[in-house]
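step=encode ok
step=design start
structure_in=
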């Protein structure tokens, strides 16, 4: 992934079919661990808490699939707003490109759901089974009452978090305050049980058992994020100039001379023990690195004990490591940021100028036209009116058409908030009055505000008549 040379380090070989080695992550305290803890707890709070927020008497975030309405903090999105969702995805993608080019995989280390849930599960593991050494010892012990109790407690807590994750997820699609009592009274929709089950199992497996395997083998971002890196991207790196040749320090006087030739790395392996993906950052940048900076905290704690400057492992750039200048403003970063900001501006404009109403016209496909007993010609339409505003409203439906064509429908239409109303409308042409030059005539349905007379929307369609 990187072209940073690592001096005096023999390349390691690894079998492609090597069995997974269980990683016993060691707990470490430090600046980045604190930052990570706060970020991940904040995200957890947002995920588990938002489902319980109420906004204007309704669940603040609710994706109501049967009604095809997505409510987000007082704004209702309809399937017709799908374009906005596409824009949002493109903005998110460019946001990710920008942040990756700037600071590597901080998304993975600090905000990715896989990291967040793994962090919670590891925290439970630490509380139930003890520190890294205690966990290694426990796993190597034969089964006993204590081991069974600790393991059982850990899995019960894992399953509870996984279950609550599933309930909360489904709670964004079914009002959560109704879902929970219905769930326990076995009165919820069968799909709710299926999805809660799927989410419980996936969360339990991904965060409890697979952990770093998801990041290394399943996440596509891990594979393509390197193309967004350049020599000025901030990434967690080992300062090989300062650290090599590495070596343990000996207290024997005879070794003193040799000790003085060593670099700052004392080869304590603490940076490897704290790494959630089990890699050695001293081997250079690797695609398995999620940029969590726990190895930075680990190495800083060692440097502090040795009275050496911190930062042997640190966030830095390839250019800086090689003694060159780091460029903050570079074409690629500016390009990503500009595209993101342009899209964001266009998205905000589209959101703010979105009309709270939609009009759709469908011609009756059964017959082009019909003669009536009064020798007039009629065409039938289904007029779909959608009140996408945040209140009940009355609309005035009128027709703009050549003389002799009239509309047979109630002009005053009252729609409740978020109501979709289908009105059957007949247009009637009196051949005595209308003097049509063609068999197909453009007509327009116009919807306006009855109080102010302001036009809200108009939609064109065709009136078809026999040749006169
Ligand atoms: S090498 Fe360091 S930054 Fe990368 S995943 Fe491991 S601990 Fe986190
Ligand atoms: S924690 Fe620092 S000193 Fe210890 S092995 Fe890692 S890089 Fe070397």
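sequence_out=
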């Amino acid at each position: 992934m990187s072209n940073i040379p690592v001096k005096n380090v023999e390349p390691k070989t690894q079998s492609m079919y090597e069995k997974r080695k269980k990683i016993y992550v060691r707990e470490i305290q430090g600046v980045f661990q604190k930052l990570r803890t706060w970020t991940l707890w904040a995200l957890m709070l947002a995920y588990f808490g938002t489902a319980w927020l109420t906004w204007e008497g309704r669940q603040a975030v609710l994706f109501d699939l049967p009604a095809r309405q997505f409510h987000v903090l007082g704004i209702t999105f309809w399937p017709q707003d799908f374009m906005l969702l596409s824009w949002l995805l493109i903005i998110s993608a460019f946001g990710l490109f920008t942040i990756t080019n700037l600071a590597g995989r901080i998304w993975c280390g600090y905000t990715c759901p896989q990291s967040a849930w793994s962090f919670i599960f590891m925290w439970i593991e630490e509380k139930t089974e003890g520190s890294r050494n205690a966990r290694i010892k426990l796993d190597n012990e034969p089964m006993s009452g204590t081991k069974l109790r600790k393991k059982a407690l850990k899995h019960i807590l894992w399953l509870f978090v996984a279950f609550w994750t599933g309930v909360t997820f489904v709670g964004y699609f079914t009002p959560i305050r109704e879902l929970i009592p219905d769930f326990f009274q076995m009165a919820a929709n069968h799909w709710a049980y299926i999805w809660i089950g799927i989410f419980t199992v996936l969360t339990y497996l991904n965060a409890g058992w697979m952990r770093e395997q998801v990041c290394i083998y399943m996440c596509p971002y891990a594979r393509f994020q390197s193309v967004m890196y350049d020599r000025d991207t901030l990434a967690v790196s080992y300062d090989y100039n300062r650290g090599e040749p590495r070596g343990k320090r000996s207290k024997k006087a005879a070794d003193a001379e040799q000790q003085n030739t060593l670099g700052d790395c004392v080869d304590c392996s603490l940076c490897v023990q704290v790494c959630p993906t089990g890699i050695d950052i001293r081997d250079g940048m690797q695609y398995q690195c999620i940029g969590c900076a726990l190895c930075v905290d680990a190495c800083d704690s060692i440097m502090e004990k040795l009275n050496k400057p911190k930062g042997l492992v640190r966030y830095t750039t390839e250019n800086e490591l090689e003694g060159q200048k780091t460029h903050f403003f570079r074409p690629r970063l500016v390009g990503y940021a500009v595209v993101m900001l342009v899209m964001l501006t266009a998205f905000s404009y589209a959101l703010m100028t979105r009309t709270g109403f939609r009009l759709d016209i469908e011609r009756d496909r059964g017959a082009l036209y019909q003669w009536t007993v009064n020798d007039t010609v009629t065409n039938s339409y289904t007029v779909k009116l959608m009140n996408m505003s945040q209140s009940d409203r009355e609309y005035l439906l009128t027709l703009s058409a050549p003389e002799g064509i009239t509309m047979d429908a109630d002009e005053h239409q009252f729609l409740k908030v978020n109501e979709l109303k289908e009105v059957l409308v007949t247009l009637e042409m009196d051949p005595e009055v209308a003097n049509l030059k063609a068999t197909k005539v453009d007509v327009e349905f116009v919807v306006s505000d009855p109080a102010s007379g302001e036009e809200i929307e108009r939609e064109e369609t065709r009136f078809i008549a026999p040749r006169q």
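step=design ok
step=annotate ok -> Residues 236, 274-277, 279, 281, 289-295 surround iron/sulfur cluster (ligand 1) (CB under 6 Å).
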